[in-house]
Write a structure and sequence with these properties.
The protein is of the alpha+beta class. Helix content is 37%, strand content 32%. It has one helix and seven strands; from the N terminus they run H-E-E-E-E-E-E-E. A hairpin with a 5-residue loop joins strand 4 (108-120) and strand 5.
Length: 173
């Protein structure tokens, strides 16, 4: 009688092992699917970051091609080439810096701009970045320029020069 019970238990044990192996296979497939979705979402976030960076570069281009800091367009927007990713950059003129080291005879000042760019990609991925730049322009009025040398050896600013002062990634809204 003992032999008959052992034959049936082998079938039961085999079915339990087969069920466990099937469940492990399903768990692995589900895990792979989740990892693929996470990788796709990361790619969408990177695309949004690229769009936001492109918005900052387009805003800087807008600053450099304008004739005067007051005439810079306040909003620059566009679409990334060969993609559905978009950007919108807002530019704000923050004022003049009049104490730039410069050569005598060319009164210059630094026009400061704050740029905030938002990039959007597929699946509602959003990235926001801020940059602060200074564009060296002719002084808007009478100033007392700071000499480059001989007091201190330092950089002499030239008209048309652009300095990137800061960049940061902003939290999403």
């Amino acid at each position: 009688m003992r032999r008959r019970r052992s034959r049936g238990s082998a079938l039961t044990t085999g079915l339990i092992i087969l069920t466990l192996v099937t469940l492990l296979g399903l768990a692995g497939a589900s895990s792979a699917h989740v990892e693929r979705l996470v990788a796709q979402n990361e790619a969408f976030r990177e695309n949004a970051a690229s769009a936001a960076s492109a918005g900052i570069e387009m805003a800087i281009s807008e600053i450099l091609t304008s004739s005067d800091p007051a005439t810079v367009k306040p909003v620059v927007s566009g679409r990334m080439p060969d993609a559905d990713d978009i950007f919108e950059a807002t530019l704000q003129f923050a004022g003049y810096e009049t104490t730039l080291p410069q050569s005598p005879g060319a009164p210059l000042s630094g026009a400061h701009f704050d740029i905030v760019s938002t990039g959007k990609s597929t699946r509602n991925a959003v990235d926001r970045q801020r940059a602060r730049v200074m564009w060296v322009v002719a002084a808007p009025g009478e100033i007392t320029p700071a000499d480059c040398e001989p007091v201190l050896p330092r950089h002499c600013f030239q008209r048309g020069e652009l300095l990137r002062l800061s960049w940061q990634r902003l939290p999403g809204e």
